[in-house]
Amino acid sequence: MSITKKVLALGAVGLMAAGLAACSSDAEGATEGGDVECNVGISMPTRSLERWINDGEQLEALLKDEGCTVDLQYADNKTSEQISQIQNQIAGGAKILVVAPIDGEVLSPVLSEAKKTQDAVVISYDRLINGTEDIDYYATFDNAKVGKMQGEFIVDQLGLDDGEGPFNLEPFAGSPDDNNAKFFFSGAWDVLLPYVENGQLVVPSGKSPKSNDEWASIGIQGWASDKAQAEMDNRLTSFYSGDEKVDVVLSPNDSLAIGIEASLKSAGYAPGEDYPLITGQDADKANVKAILDGEQAMTVLKDTRKLGEAVFEMIKQIVAGDEVETNVTYDNTKFDVPTAQLDPVVVTKDNVQEEIIDSGFIDASELGL
Ligand code: GAL
């Protein structure tokens, strides 16, 4: 799966002509002059993971403010439910579909239906939809960079470059059906595997993929906190007796981290001297609190407001008949999908104020501050 950089300043996303109704677009299915109606179906994976609520509601608000018709749906992490929700959106006249897939491999049939019946323009949101030509654009963050940031944070904090170690590492990966999860893992493992191979990092549970291709072997289905907690419980009871301690946990996101932290807490770990270094992603409220309380070392902020704005710009350009601005492409096994890719940001207790509170991502009162 390859990513190609196209030098187009995403920041300079062209502003669309005023008024969404009178439109033109050069997206597939829109005749010159771009009479694509701003009737948008938004399909999000679940409400059980905090970020998707923000993603859906923020984009819905932007579009409604512009006078678009919007149908926002959440699919409770069930692919059959997501497929039937998209079918309803197609039947309801959606001309533009924004889809964050639960499973990026199973949407081809419903998307070809969307093309046949509505000539719909399809934007893959945050996660790439694979194996179909019936998508037009993708918008996401640099997901390999998220993993690289987590890996480099661990190297830096443990002093691995100065030869420190050995340290006990427990790596986790994301949901096996999520195309992003392999990017998070390979981004981190490309940084960490050399230290596993030279013995500075040891994985007592043996859950240590020999290569990036084996990432799904340590994947947690559905990004479920309770499954991550159970997995950590199992590793602690099976591989950590006596004085053996976990020193560092590679957690690909915050929902897994919160489960892992609960498991460590019930095993008697407490913030301070012997508490492990734990990574994360998404800057969920509970995890930002955990960072302030010393129970998590970092998270990676992917500002959902910026992703919403990037997709909103794409939709405005589609409706206006303008060229849709992108800056890279992602190969979805059928073609190189034009993509708007944004940059993630590392957040630790040292920059929570600036990146999370001052930016307005989370209100201080919601963090008990
Ligand atoms: C990924 C997404 C992450 C995280 C995870 C669980 O696809 O990029 O930000 O939220 O899903 O929802």
Automatic annotation (TrEMBL):
Keywords per UniProt: Signal
All residue ranges annotated as the Periplasmic binding protein domain in the record: 40-322
Protein's cellular compartments: Cell envelope
Keyword set includes Nucleus: no
InterPro entries (alphabetical): Bact_Solute-Bind_Prot2, Peripla_BP_I, SBP_2_dom
Keyword field contains Signal: yes
CDD domains cross-referenced by the UniProt entry: PBP1_ChvE
Superkingdom as given in the UniProt entry: Bacteria
Signal peptide: 1-21
PANTHER family listed in its UniProt record: D-XYLOSE-BINDING PERIPLASMIC PROTEIN
Annotated protein name in UniProt: Sugar-binding protein
Species, as recorded: Paramicrobacterium chengjingii
Record lineage: Bacteria, Bacillati, Actinomycetota, Actinomycetes, Micrococcales
